[in-house]
Specification:
alpha+beta, Phosphorylase Kinase, domain 1, Transferase(Phosphotransferase), domain 1, seven-stranded mixed sheet, two-stranded antiparallel ribbon, disordered N terminus
Length: about 475
């Protein structure tokens, strides 16, 4: 979630101006005002202007189902991915027809964790929604939140007892892309979509719940993350990105609030800005993403690829290790309502990398923030980076229960050095041998204690919004 100062009387006019300006024109004007003899770092294919007849022109409809005329279902029912995409397209394209005129809720469900009754799925009667409590620090009354249109609630089905995330999107702001990527592509590091239901003038998207909250909430509640926590999160994010990029999908909004903790993994959420490319380079009509994490080529609007997500991940890594987004310390938000020109001229923000960053992690961040997208590594390459695969002796103890139990089996009794104030229960009996049951009990006790500290990275109630 981004915050902007409202102290200026001209804020609304500035926002309106920024929203409607063509970024290419802005860059050209600034180049004339502030000429610099910098060498060009982009290949010609990446900087050429998008033609009006470009095959990658933005689509208002789904890739699979454009042009079909199908009535909205009159009930909530189970269906296929194709049924859900048809439903999403019809809601998006016929909003004025159906908005507020449906006699009852309608929708398509993909998973039986949601249990409709006789074609109905009603709030309170069938599913209960709970507002997720905020744990952010007070940032003052001079700031207002800016981010996605949807609000996210914690939901629980009354019959299956399944806890889910429920994202509410006003129907006039709903796009098929809000469900298309999650419906079509399944991966352990992508939040699973369970279904979509239209109630009145609001679309409710039910998906896998990240009850551990987002990385943003972790940062706001607990401050900067430790390096081994960053390694753990980064591995999961890169696995998700590696899968998406293999399908030629650009997420377009990698940032802390869109990385959510599950009990044993981290997942990516919010695919409303995602695009499936049909060529090697994607030419957008507008800016996509959150500007503080945007890559220089995205800001130029002259074509980019999946490598834009890698740059955004590099910016996110800086945020995780310092607790502050890149650029903000050197250029306070109160004085700089927009960072677009700063990023265009000064990226990458290497000066914002934490001073105590390890050499290998610094190299990972610098590599991810490579200004030239052609030289920037892929998600597959980064997963092999030394920073994400430290030697075993440098890894924190008991990263998982399975690995902890495996290590415990390799230890002999004399290798365990217990503190003097801890009495070994087996030594009280005077026996030199432990039963297998006692070994398992002691091993489990030790490992769970370590795990309790390790999983402090997901402590605290979930956030109200994913971003």
């Amino acid at each position: 979630m981004e915050y902007m100062s409202t102290g200026s009387d001209d804020k609304e006019e500035i926002d309106l101006l920024i929203e409607n300006l063509n970024m290419s024109d802005v860059i050209d004007m600034m180049e004339n005002l502030y000429p610099r003899g910098e060498p060009e770092v982009y290949e010609h294919s990446l900087v050429k202007m998008c033609q009006d007849t470009n095959q990658n022109e933005e689509r208002a409809e789904s890739l699979l189902l454009s042009g079909q005329e199908v009535s909205l279902p009159s009930s909530v029912r189970y269906g296929t991915v194709e049924d859900l995409l048809i439903f999403a397209n019809q809601v998006s394209n016929a909003t004025k027809h159906y908005c507020g005129r449906q006699p009852q809720e309608s929708g398509i469900l993909l998973n039986t964790v949601i249990a409709p009754q006789n074609g109905r799925y009603q709030i309170d009667a069938d599913v209960v929604l709970f507002p997720w409590k905020l744990t952010y620090r007070n940032i003052g009354s001079d700031f207002i939140p800016r981010g996605a249109f949807g609000k996210v609630y914690l939901a629980q089905d009354r019959r299956t007892k399944k806890r889910m995330a429920c994202k509410l999107i006003p129907v006039d702001q709903f796009k098929p892309s809000d469900v298309e990527i999650q419906a079509c592509f399944h991966h352990e590091n992508i939040a699973e979509l369970y279904g979509a239901v239209l109630w009145g003038e609001t679309i409710h998207l039910f998906m896998e719940a990240g009850e551990g909250g987002s990385v943003m909430e972790k940062l706001e509640s607990c401050g900067p993350m430790r390096e081994f926590e960053i390694i753990w999160v980064t591995k999961h994010v890169l696995k998700g990105l590696d899968f998406l990029h293999s399908k030629k999908v650009i997420h377009h909004d990698i940032k802390p609030s869109n990385i959510v903790f599950m009990s044993t993994k981290a997942v990516l959420v919010d695919f409303g800005l995602s695009v499936k490319m049909t060529e090697e380079i994607y030419f957008p009509k507008d800016l996509r993403g959150t500007e503080i994490y945007m890559s220089p080529e995205v800001i130029l609007c002259r074509g980019h690829s999946t490598k834009a997500d890698i740059y955004s991940l590099g910016s996110t890594l800086i945020h995780m290790q310092t607790g502050t987004p890149p650029w903000v310390k050197r250029y306070p938000r109160s004085a700089y309502p927009s960072y677009l020109y700063i990023i265009h001229k000064q990226a990458p923000p290497l000066a914002d990398i934490a001073q105590d960053c390890s050499p290998s992690m610094r190299d990972l961040i610098e590599t991810s923030l490579e200004r030239n997208p052609n030289l920037r590594p892929s998600a597959t390459d980064l997963l092999k980076h030394d920073a994400l695969n430290p030697p075993r002796e440098e890894q924190p103890r008991c990263q998982s229960l399975d690995s902890a139990l495996f290590e415990r089996k390799k230890l002999t009794r004399k290798d365990l050095e217990l503190p003097e104030n801890i009495t070994d229960s087996s030594s009280c009996t005077g026996s030199t041998e432990e039963s297998e049951a006692m070994k398992r009990q002691r091993s489990l006790y030790i490992d769970l204690g370590a795990l309790a500290g390790y999983f402090n990275i997901v402590r605290g109630p979930p956030t109200l919004e994913y971003g």
